[in-house]
Specification:
Layout lengths: L11 H12 L5 H8 L3 H13 L4 E5 L8 E8 L4 H9 L4 E7 L4 E7 L2 H11 L6 E14 L11 H7 L14 H9 L8 H8 L3 H14 L3 E5 L9 E8 L2 H12 L4 E7 L5 E7 L2 H11 L7 E12 L12
Antiparallel strand pairs: 1-6, 2-4, 2-5, 3-4, 3-10, 5-8, 7-9, 7-10, 8-9
Helix pairs in contact: 2-3, 8-9
Length: 325
């Protein structure tokens, strides 16, 4: 068994605390203890160990962009050039997601930018790069779920309901007040900063900060994400699935996948593969069961499964090779 801290499996109590943080990013030890049936001392010690060791990070992420502003890119690359291409893509602030396929020939990236900037990259810069053999660009029509929605399957339904803050995303970043935007920026690196620390960073009174932060989280105008290496949860297989679904069944399939505990992202797209799902699973046998059993009732007419060899950049993560990854 490996003794590397980065690859040690987290135990069931840690998994339950991570799942609780996904429901409430600013979860206190006292609340965790009450809902999960722990002593406050144990809950506080284990939460502190997870957060202080870096095994778990809790960050604020920008609200989702509106329809039409985001594209999924599938880029075929010459062997031996993957690192160069993925590094260049990951360095772009308008690309929050870069995956390298296990086969070493494809890069998947999610691009969010204004039309002119998007077109320059997709139609001019990428095709003009000699290491790139083809580029497929599909516009995101609807987001059924993303990384902020994923919930580790480690709580009972009653526990999750009690821990989950009410509300649905209600505002875009542009609609946030100056105070709200200042809080969102301050929380990007650590969504658990105290109200005292936030007041110091933003220059607003602590009572005002506390009140606005509570409202932002309840309304989900401020989204949070719990970052943890899925391998430490026993999830060794990372895969992107590109699905063909008849229009009459597309919405039902998207909603069903969004509710599945293995799925950490699902989007509707233009193009032949009109639904894409990202999954974390324990092993290839579980992936096979997911495809043959879980997808079978969803009227899917075609599937392209791409194993991820390396997640170069994901929302909330720094690019590989930088701090925070």
């Amino acid at each position: 068994m490996t003794t590397s801290m980065e690859s040690e499996l987290l135990d069931q109590l840690d998994r339950r605390l991570i799942a609780a943080l996904q429901c409430d990013a600013r979860l206190t030890a006292e609340r965790a203890a009450r809902v999960l049936g722990l002593s406050a001392r144990v809950a506080g010690r284990r939460l502190a160990a997870l957060l202080e060791s870096g095994a778990v990070q809790v960050v604020a992420v920008p609200p989702r962009e509106g329809p039409g502003s985001t594209m999924l890119l599938r880029i075929k690359v010459l062997r031996g050039k993957l690192d160069t291409i993925t590094a260049a893509l990951a360095a772009r602030p308008d690309i929050a997601f870069v995956d390298m396929s296990a086969g070493g020939e494809e890069v998947a990236a999610v691009l969010t930018a204004a039309a002119g900037q998007r077109d320059r990259l997709v139609f001019r810069q990428l095709p003009a790069t000699s290491a790139i053999t083809s580029v497929s660009a599909q516009t995101v029509l609807h987001v059924y779920a993303d990384a902020t929605d994923w919930r580790l399957d480690a709580l009972t339904a009653a526990e999750r309901a009690e821990l989950t803050l009410a509300g649905a995303p209600s505002r875009t970043e542009a609609e946030l007040s100056p105070l709200d935007q200042a809080l969102a920026r301050a929380l990007q690196g650590d969504a658990r900063l105290t109200a005292t620390a936030l007041a110091t960073r933003t220059g607003y009174p602590e009572s005002t900060v506390r009140r606005r932060l509570g409202a932002l989280l309840r309304d989900r105008a401020l989204l949070t994400q719990v970052i943890v290496d899925p391998r430490r949860l026993g999830l060794e297989v990372d895969a992107n699935l590109y699905l063909q679904v008849p229009p009459a069944h597309l919405d039902a399939a998207g909603r069903a996948l969004a509710a599945h505990p293995a799925v950490h992202g699902v989007i509707a797209l233009t193009g032949t593969a009109n639904l894409s799902a990202a999954v974390w699973l324990r092993d290839l046998e579980e992936l096979h069961r997911f495809i043959t059993r879980d997808l079978a009732p969803l009227s899917i007419s075609g599937i392209d499964t791409v194993l991820v060899g390396r997640a170069v950049k994901r929302p909330g993560h720094a690019p590989a090779g930088r701090s925070g990854q």
